[in-house]
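FIELD: query
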Amino acid sequence: VRHYNVAEPQSAVVRNLPDNRFGEGLTILDNRLYQLTWRSQEVYVYEPTGLAPVDTFKISGDGWGLTNNGRALIYSDGSDRLRFLNPDTRKVEKTLYVTMGGKPVQQLNELEWIQGSIYANVLPTNLVVIIDPQTGEVGSTLDLERLYPTRMRRSRDHIANGLAWDHQRRELLVTGKHWPWIYRLRLLRPKLEDLLSR
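FIELD: result
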């Protein structure tokens, strides 16, 4: 695990949303950058290199988190529901209800598609759930408490709330609201014999 001080790169391209819009999730699909907004129920579409605006369209429900599986945009609305949206027709083609042990998992927020699974922060906890995109069942979880212990945080609002997957390094980047660091995590898959012995 490594951590980095959070600083904006000197060469960053910046595009501000209107003052009455609250930006949430981002994802790149087919050379388009999609930005979800919170309560305005809108998605902004940009050219990813220079952030030139391409389009804006409406969605159903609030926007909490956004990712994609290479075909569909997948977004959360703060409930136990994930919607799979066709980026061409802008229609919801599938709704996935997320459960753990048969019970709904609410407050799904930041999303990331990683190696065929959906990772999601559960607000306002330190938990990341790993979701089967076919069934909605949570197969396993990550607890981020030890990365930045609650007792060290200056406010109860400083919750875990940031996921990104580094495809080249195959590492998960995690952070939170007002966290001083971004952490890189290497995900280790258990050996088959360890799973069978449980």
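FIELD: remark
Residues 191-198 have pLDDT under 50 and may be disordered.
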